Amino acid sequence: MRYCINCCIHLLPNDLHRQCFRCRGPNHNNQKCPVCKGDNKIPLYTDSKQMKLLAVLEVRTDHSESWNGFFCLRKGKLCSLIFGLIIMTLVMASYILTGAKHGLLLIPSPFHYAAFISNPSLMDNESFSDMKDHYQPSKINISYVKDYPSIKLIIDTIASKLEFITRQRPDLEELRKQEPHMFSVIPNKFLPNSKNPCWYEEYRGNTTTDPYATNSYALYSKRFRTIFDYLRKVFWNHLYHYKDKHYRLRCLPHFYIIGQPKCGTTDLYDRLRLHPDVRFSAIKEPHWWTRKRFGIIRLRDGFHDRYPVEDYLDLFDLAAHQIQGALQSEAAKERGKMSNIIIGEASASTMWDNNAWIFFYDNSTEGEPPFLIQDFIHAFQPNAKLIVMLRDPVERLYSDYLYFASANKSAEDFHEKVAESLQLFENCMLDYSLRACVYNNTLNNAMPVRLQVGLYVVYLLDWLTVFGKDQILVLRLEDHASNVKYTMHMVFQFLDLGPLSEKQEALITKSPASNTRRPEDRSLGPMLPTTKAILKDFYRPFNTKLAQVLFDDAFLWKRT
Questions:
Q1: 124 HSE (CA, 13 A, CB side)
Q2: Is 224 a domain residue?
């Protein structure tokens, strides 16, 4: 069958091809066809089964051209137009989203970033840097001064919503219902001849039993296994035998260094442990009250089995052995002498981290946690002493960022993270109370920097609902850095520690500072002046309230 390629650019089936007004099927004459006359026309041969085509098509511009070609041309143009519009839409959407995030739009975006993403938990000195790898900030070489007016509006909105409302303290029976096992292990009274809260507990194991076989701290952390290996070796030597039964001395801390992160708690810990009457847990920061008792190691790994209170008490066995030795000494037995050894615990998350409550306690308080860490500590240790070390929250936040951020650290990146975190905090404050936002797990994990840790007065007021002011010593890192001796004397007096020799005091007060800023972080320089101004505005009302509560204007941090 023979057809003219000029007439039929697209091959049609035989029955349809006959309808072409130029072609007449098998009777078509190439010489008589008015369209096909002329030279250099390319005939096309096909059979009824398969077609193979290799030809150069001639596109005519006269009005006698095939309508099929015309429609094909229009169809191609239409597809190109639609494709172009799609590309343009994507480019504009990218511009709007990126510009709105970094404040670069000529017309401010009316949208806020209200969607909370689920990040892993923020683990002090443990996993926070691992959690940050996903966040890759955009590098934009612009002046950040223009951000101040728009962010100032956000800060003003937050300030207008602030209300420092006293929380309702839960009663003891409610606490018992939440943690029945803990109340079954820890007694109501402690040994009268020990300054530290301790008691004897019957041990039912035998000589072949490993007392630390199931301890979660030993199972999940290789670096603590050496400590537990030593405890296993000396365990039986420290059991107290009475009437064919074995008893072990159990102890809780006498005092807690409860916060805050990047405020000098490590330095205070390192100096205090040099005092002859002070002992600490085998691990500096067990994070048991805030995380491990809920089974949280890293939220990115999900929940593990909850660490029982026995695992926490095991961390004080080394100190308990020394207290027991003092109690059982001949001099102590004869004179009824009291053991003056005290134990401390220095988890810097204790003051502020109540993020796990939402997963374990009934949410019937409009977003506010019904129970806080201090409720349980006070239930067992109403006479506990608490030490808080604070610093200018603006500088604390930058130090926190430099310590925990894993990559792409810069003053510009810090500024962007601060701006984003303020927007997220504002969104929460529009719908919830201040306490609900401060303890909001979703919000705290979504914010790129930990703004909430610097809201010291919110946490302090909640601790003061259960503990008296005389039980909480609040220090400033700035004072500690300028006069270590004075600060340490305040701590010794607060803990009622005995006098030291000049040599012992010099060892404690003249030791080099611990956990200072790393050289690579110092090279990044200070934060941007605009960022500093923004953060000072944000923290100002909280600092003002803190100074009022403590009757000390030094906590306004006006000179920093």
A1: 28
A2: yes
Q: What single letter denotes the amino acid at residue 325?
A: G
Domain presence at residue 112: no
The amino acid that residue 359 corresponds to is F
pLDDT in tens, 417-430: 999 999 999 999 99
* pLDDT value of residue 127: 35
Number of domains in the chain: 1
How far is it, in rounded angstroms, from Cα 7 to Cα 16? 13
Q: Is 279 helix (H, G, I), strand (E, B) or coil?
A: strand
Kindly state whether residue 546 falls inside one of the protein's structural domains: yes
State which residues form the domain around 425: 172-556
Question: Does residue 433 fall inside a structural domain?
Answer: yes
480: CATH: 3.40.50.300
Within 13 A of 242's CA, how many CA atoms are on the CB side? Answer: 10
Q: Name the β-bridge partners of 344.
A: 255, 280
Is 245's pLDDT higher than 80? yes
Per-residue pLDDT band for 94 (boundaries 50, 70, 90) equals low
Q: What is the pLDDT of residues 44-71, one digit of tens each?
A: 444 444 444 333 334 344 444 444 444 4
Name which of 426, 439, 454 is nearest 366 in CA terms: 439
One-character DSSP codes across 382-418: TT-EEEEEE--HHHHHHHHHHHH--SS--HHHHHHHH
Find out whether 390 and 477 touch, Cβ atoms under 8 Å.
Answer: yes
